[in-house]
Amino acid sequence: MAQEKEEKTAGQEKAEKGKGKIHFSIDDFFTAFIDLTENRKEYSSLFEQPVFAFFKRLHQDYQAVFSCFCFYEEGKDGRNLAQVTDVFREEFQENSDWLRFGFHGLNSGANYGSTRFQTGECRADYRQAGTDYEKTVKELERITGGGRCIDRVPRIHFYAGTAEACRAWMDASCGIRGLISAEDDRIAYFHTEEQSRTLRQQDRLDTPGLGLTFFRTKVRLENTEDIVAFLEDFGRQEKMEELLVFTHEPFLEEERIRQMFRSCAAFARERDWGFGFPEDWLERKDGGHRQKI
Q: What pLDDT score was predicted for residue 115?
């Protein structure tokens, strides 16, 4: 596994110095990997693939960073990450300061939540949840070279995860150090109503019993009619320290969604905010390495 890079972008340095922080992420990520694989002989660079080219343009223009949260398999025809090429791993490694990949779920039907989550196949027990995580991350490590390319504060499908499932993900190889929670008022993961209320009010939630930090998502782009109005309202709030923005991979085909990403990036630049990853925002207590919480 490649050694973690120590270099920081200017945006990450701003975020660490206490200014506002912004993070972009993509859920249900899979199709771009398949396109990369099918066209690996035609693409001389990772960034000739349209989705990755869009990411790179926003990084070049705004210092944007992206996390892609991935399924292991795509349910329609049985394709999975084990079939994805690893010929671009050197480029993934070279760009791991702004482009990372993490676990989202086994597939679109997997559900790691309690009985209140009725959608999909329940895979919430310790063994199943841990196996799904390690199976997915193992392939992401192969594809990208691992190390700093792996985002260990992912967003889980359906925002579903029992305490037992979360423990399994923490204990797994290259295990999680936090999770990204919902943009709306739903009770996510194993949270109580009081914990959910705290997360909505403070944007973060620490769970001392388990040792995880949860970060609140601020905006889901495909459900947002007017991103400019949202950003103007957000900018008037007294507490606007972290802005976590996401969409799902299929919506990246829409110019409307791409323009929303540009608007969010411009909002951050106007305020001299720094782009970064929630994992890197966790307090470090280990002499510079990312903290194991």
A: 54
